[in-house]
Fold each of these.
Amino acid sequence: MIKRIIFFIFFLYFLALIQTSFLVHLKILGIVPNLVLIVIILINIFTPYYQWQSIGLSLLGGFYLDVFSLSCFGPNYFCFFGFYTLISLLIALFIKFIFKRHVQFSKR
Amino acid sequence: MKTIHKIRVIVPVVLLIILFLVLNLTNFSDKTKNFFYSISSPIQKTLWQAGDNVSDFFSGIFNAQELKKEKDEIFLQNLELIAQISALKELEKENKDLREALSLGLEKDFQLVLSQVINKDISQDSLLINKGSEDGIVPGLSVITSQKTLLGQIGKVYKDFSEVVLITSKESSFDAKITEKEIYGVVKGEGNLKASLSLLPKEEDISEGETIVTSALGGIFPPKLLVGRIKEIKKTDIESFQTAELTLGFDLGELENLFIITNF
């Protein structure tokens, strides 16, 4: 488990770098997919709801996005350091909630 | 048991809130960002160049027809420009002679600082460059390309890095003029790498392809920097002014080296 967490710490860091330095050149219909958020969603879907490490990884992914997103200018309520961390946390908690309440896995 | 569970949830949440309050209310977030940019900039520079190459490769494949059309247009423009250059060379010689005669001395050029792009924001119209307060960069300085095309101005400045707010940012607006006709207007950023020239007098006849340069009126940018060309003109009976959509003078994919004007 620790190996997997360490892997994801570096993996999310490199994804954030790829997102901000590489993918910005390759817009698809004017849109750049947010790889970090996609991976956060996948981590939370494929980790059992009772394992809370995925919440930590989501926070870390959001933190990386906050670090590598440049400041916004002018009045904007969503303009604060921690915006992506908050979004990632909410996504992770939402997925955990859905899986805990509405999805049942067979015990084999 | 339930209390322990509650504490285990509440304590991290409270710690997280405190951490982000500290990061937002002090300049600790700037230091954090500067630290991450410092350790990541070599990788970011490599990734930026790789992305640029990949983008060039794919644009060559997907836009082959458009490129051919563009090539033909450029060829014709090139012929026109060669003719203009020879005419300008004559004028330059004449100008030089006149300057010498009037003892005006050499024209003062800009004082420039060279920098490189290492990051572009995913949601904002801004760039990150590898020069910061240590290199004498302060907010508000103008940023241009090597072709003296206006790119934007310095926004936030970190110790070793700075953010460039592009002219396409929604917060950007400055005075500009159409060179051919001396018509003044205001260039406004519309976000998503788009900008428009507004407040153009309705009675003026403006055509597509005309060149826009900065004017000395606003005092934000040095005068006569290329902004772009007129792409489309929007004129309605209701509004007292006409607006023009702009084709910008720079291509974000091609940007690598930028110049910051420290004195003009």
Amino acid sequence: MNNIYRSLIAIGAFASTVTPVIAQEAQSLDAKVNAAFALVTGPFVSFIFAPIPGTSFPWIVMWLVIAATIFTFYFSFVQLKFFKHAISLVKGDYSDPNDAGEVSHFQALATALSGTVGLGNIAGVAVAVGIGGPGATFWMILAGLMGMASKFTECTLGVKYRNEYEDGTVSGGPMYYISKGFAERGLPGGKFLAVLFSIFCILGALGGGNMFQANQAHAQISGIVGDYPGWITGIVFASVVFMVIVGGVKSIARVTEKVVPFMGVLYVTAAMIIILMNYDKIGWAFGQIFAGAFTGLGVAGGMVGALIQGFKRAAFSNEAGVGSAAIAHSAVKTKEPITEGFVSLLEPFIDTVVICTMTALVITISGQLILDPATGNYAVEGGKIATIGDTSGVALTSAAFASAFSWFPFILAIAVILFAFSTMISWSYYGLKAWTYLFGEGKTTELVFKIIFCVFIVIGAAASLGPVIDFSDAAIFAMAVVNITGLYFLMSVVKSEFVSYKERLASGEIKKFEH
Amino acid sequence: MTTKLVVGLDGKGSGDRALSYAKNLAGLIGDCEILVAYIIEWSPYSFQTPEENAERHKRREEEISTALERVIDPAVAALKKDGIKVKGMVRHGHVADALNSISEEVKASQIVVSRSSDGGLATRIFGSSTANLVMTASVPVTVVG
């Protein structure tokens, strides 16, 4: 342990003394890393985002939306009908007092949320609105509402098919439910899909759960303190993450876990204040959202462009259908897997319908997006809407908040660092579960993955937003391809759990506990 | 009707003083059973990492067996030696709430706790548990200094 600390301090000292000297070199190191990265990930990204022949609509977006719609109808709008029950479960109304000390529904939800609430809510939304305009918000909310049904399905399966080991630990997730569920129903290909999922999960953990977070965290910090090479932020983040996931310095993670919800509330509150401060523009903003949703208001790709951006960002932000939440929720203590499905309904709601929408509204209301007064459309340059100060990603969100609170970018930087960090910790775990599924448990294999993870933090911070977000998106969506295939085959299992639970709830067999 | 007393232990000298008092009281009452309880501070509303969640069940078992081994079993053995009817238990939760719900379950006639836990920072924490308990308990509470 001491050796780790010593070597980290040594690295830090070395980096800080050498930095000014090789600043010039550093800039081109960033560029070199970026170029290499874009080259390697290019083909993969092109495949995932290939448009449906004859259209400009990426097939992957269609895949996610169709799945969410099918699940919504198959489970008869469970997201509406069981929303209240979900809240009741999280409050602990149905929790057996004898289970005190085990993982509660609230804890499972909070853990999963800390993984999904991240830079996607802050920077990803800015990208969506920056390309698709305010109209993207409408599609994002719609995708969020429908995605609740996908989460419901996968989290139920995650608990139902988890592995409970003799030592008392638990492992669950799509690789388990696909392999076990398929085997149980005599379907071929379960093992193959599980392996494929694990591979994409590792890539997703390295991309969206890691690189994108580091990248945008660096963008926000350098937006405040001034430009400096990204790999420095990368090394700092990587060191802290390393200390937590390898060094076992749990105290850092614990502090973050406590502070992140607080920052989330602060963020939403600040957004609400800005929106209320501009109450006279609320109507206009919603008008822009609806008009943009159906006409595009001049954005690249028109209505379809807005739709694509909205769906993409919702999927990336709330990860519905991706399968990562199933890994997080699988540790809950419950006799009824379906209850965790209900609880997980709240995630896309909080993540997308609440937090992402807040970001989108603030960006729209603050007037960062430049309108052409003559046509009422947005001024589009190079596939993006022109913004005041030519900002994009987290810088756009920062500018939007700064228009009301000039000191907010500083708070946002702290929030961004914390959100990025907590997302990295969560995804390092998801990726690790996928890694150990493929390569077996063991200290050495685990260490190998954790080191790779930390290296990618540095790469993510150094690369520029474009290739990073493309790769992150592609990896996470690839997970969704495999996961949703599995969900289609296993949804009847969830249906029978659902029907059985509903009957027992109605008959009073499932009891509430007094508090 | 056997009178039941619930004694909250904290694994320290302060808890032992509460237990001695309860022992004397049991002697005076005659037909009496003591329930020694050790509450592991826990909330269902805390925030954890995914790794902590996955290991939680295992940790919980460890916490319970450590508490039984270090605090409850010795206390129960000592009381049994003196011929007092005694049962032991370990629970997770909020100290005041847990002691209160235990006493309601077994229909205890009073709860005996120490005023505050021996030792630095813990004094602050347990002290407020006792204060909480006194203000919210549904049965009489005896606080032993």
Amino acid sequence: MNTEMRPGSADIKKVIALAGNPNCGKTALFNALTGGRQKVGNYAGVTVERKEGGLVTPSGLKLSLLDLPGTYSLDARTPDEAITRDVLLGRVHGESRPGALVAVADATNLERSLGLVLELKRLGTPVVLALNMMDLARGRGLELDIEVLSRELGVRVVPTVAVSGEGLDALLDEVDRLLGMEPGSAQPADPVGTGAAGCAEGLAVRGRFKEVDRILNFSVRKAIAPTLWTDRIDALVLHPFWGALTLAVLLGVMFQAIFSWASVPADWIEASLSSSGAWLGSQLPEGPLQSLLVDGIFAGVGSVLVFLPQILLLFFFILLLEDSGYMARAAFLMDRIMGRVGLHGRAFIPLLSGYACAIPAVMATRTIDRPRDRLVTILIAPLMTCSARLPVYTLLISAFIPRKAVLGGLLNLQGLVMFALYASGIGIALVVAWILNRTAFKGDKSPLLLELPTYKWPNLKNLAIGLLDRSKIFVRRAGTVILSLSVLLWFVSSYPKAPEGAAEPAIHYSYAGKLGRAIEPVLEPLGFDWRVGVALVPSFAAREVMVSALATVYAVEGGEEEAQTQALAGVLAANWSLATALALLVWYVLAPQCISTLAVVRRETNSWKWPLVVLFYLTALAYLGAWATYRAAVALGLG
Amino acid sequence: MPNSSQLEEWLALAVVGIVAWRVLVRPVAFRAAHPLSRWLLKQGRVKWAMRVRRYALQGGVR
């Protein structure tokens, strides 16, 4: 079902759009103008983010404001830029052409910003120019004649400081004035060069630069001074050694925050939900309704909310790094390493957060602008060893790997195996990325072009709005899918019920049990029997469910969690061969045993195609990996 | 008359049914309605094609 936002309000409200270069303070201006009245979605059929907000002008006009993706020119080179161009030209299906444009320019970098303003002017839509970050420009000595600039450009110019709200009233007055104007006073003159050859396009670009130079010669009274402190910080953070060290420290803090700080509120949420579930369970008589509420709905709500602290912390760091201007530097530093396997420099943050959980990792790929790079990162993110794999690894390692010292007592064999499992996750992810970039995603290998913006203090209001947006996206869109699938999984694990006086555990008689037994012939070459098959079905909801599912199948009695795990380890050691355990470990390194990740991939890519690709390629990889491991282990006499 | 445990079971299954309908059946039906309406139009069944198309539009499929 297509659930993208449509500007349904556009039928009633007029639509105006913000257009400008990346990093010109466009989103800060959007936040300042719309406050919390925003809707974030995707443009139909693509992964480009669409932000719309409501505002009221001084004359009482209710408007819908679109925050268009940043672009340097209307000669679009990326899908984001193409969306901006197409929305401005009214070519996007379901989008109305904006009635007026607010061109946003970075006052500290006019040479770069004004070229786009000249292009926007040629569209024939009324334009007002918001000269943003004027405080920074003035601070660096810029003296500008606004009247002259306005006259030479042929559009009204309003100096603004989005973060403090300076100039916003004047800007809205101008918007009022523009919307009162007769539309189409200027005719569009093929602004995107649709029929132009590359040479003519180049001439047009050079012409624009010349025109910008001419306008600035007239209007700038005193040029801006270079940012010494930005250069000084860059000398450190872009240094081959100190820069890498700074990045490593920052990533260390971030990883620590996602991995362990987030566990405190996550544990708290989990504990309060499970105690509420237990309370509810004690209030209701034992039966299907109680089971549905406690094991289906409460467990489902828990599995949604438990990810929120990680997501909020991750996006807090991402927004902080973006807002301060450091993210571009970090991407530049990482591009050399990531680029070797065809990944974008920015992919390191999603992949790093994948160690905590694949869900924030997939959501964090929004920072990667090119859809191709974003998709490759989404496809390999589930291979990073997330924290949900740990209980399964711990169980199998404690059951099968002896606790003995290796390398002259330097390392413990169990620790070494755990490290190998972590390392194989990232290793295989990089190999898959390398293969994808040479096969399915072969093609355009444009070099990383990055603008390194000046450093700025992050704005708290923008941070708060950004975090609120991410939480809404996760809870409303991914959460509903996760919760619904949890209820369905409860059904297949609970029905049909066990007959009176049944000898086997209840799951044995359920659809999940039947499915587990049905797939036994498929799992047999991996050394897995029907019990593993039965446990694999409910653990599709979340990897860690495998431990409790195995305990149910092997009828290991409950009690304290640790005692239950130890008892289960003993049972597994007695029933399984080492070859089976190793094959299951490899299965868990590779298999997409997480319904929530697939739900988030579906939401982020806006299509069922990519979660299905993830499901099939990872299952195939897991099957082959587990089969090869089992066969090799049997050949070595471990079977 | 069904007893209370049967009623409970029906209620639980109704919840599962509603969820399955909303998450699995409806999206697939909306997706399928669009090509179905085109096929019906080709067969000359204009009235039915329009009905199915209206249904597809309800789900936001264009």
